[in-house]
Amino acid sequence: MKIARHLLAVALGTLAVFGNGTGIGVSAGESRDTTDESESPTIVLVVRHAEKESGRGDVALSDSGQTRAKELARICSVFDVQAVYCTDTQRARQTGSWSAPKNSIQTYAAPTKEWLTEVLRDNRGKSVLIVGHSNTVPAIVESLGGANVTVAETDYEKLFVLRIERESTTTIELRYGVKSE
């Protein structure tokens, strides 16, 4: 639990830096009207699915993967994630299911630029989670205007937080859960 509290504090700190349309992160003397969602930044959390069972094909999450998915859900609750998108694989759906509002997950076949544009349009001013794979997360982050990132086959703890505004995108790379083996 010590790690979980620490990472939740990191997420809260990220909110303080980024803000989330609720006034968090607004400096003293500065005001921000947050009633218009089109003016609020869109926050996109992008992760690789959590640790999976050994084997080939569409395998489920391992016990450590389930633990990581639960930690991700705690972080997503801080960001008030309102939509979750996952590939249609068991491990991706299980990773996102803990974070999905009312157990609703939307699946996607491939993270195309057109699909990502639609996700941003449909969720303007909100926070969303996208669960991908080691070979798709970097392209998702970059297609959203974020930094050039890498995700190795053994990286499960990386969490990319993108603050997307009209003219700019800011990317922060965080780590969550226990370090991957």
Describe the oligomeric state of these chains in a short phrase: single chain
Largest sheet: 6 strands, mixed
Low-confidence stretches: 1-6, 20-35
* C-alpha-based Rg, rounded: 16 Å
Category by helix and strand content:
alpha/beta
Distance between the termini: 19 Å
Strand % is 15-25%
The averaged pLDDT comes out at 83
Please tally the helical runs, counting DSSP H or I stretches of 4 or more residues: 5
Helix content: 25-40%
What coarse outline follows from CA principal-axis ratios? globular
**How are strands sequenced across the largest beta sheet?**
3-2-4-1-5-6
Q: What is the number of E strands?
A: 6
Order of helices and strands: HEHEHEHEHEE
Kindly describe this structure.
The protein has 181 residues and is α/β, with parallel strands linked by helices. The protein contains five helices and six strands, in the order αβαβαβαβαββ. It has helices at residues 2-18, 63-78, 90-97, 113-122, 137-143; strands spanning 42-48, 81-87, 106-108, 127-132, 158-164, 169-175. The protein has a six-stranded mixed β-sheet with strand order 3-2-4-1-5-6, with helices on both faces. Strand 5 (158-164) and strand 6 (169-175) form a beta hairpin. Helix 1 (2-18) packs parallel to helix 2 and helix 2 (63-78) crosses helix 3 (90-97). The protein is globular. The chain starts with a helix and ends in a 6-residue tail after the last strand.
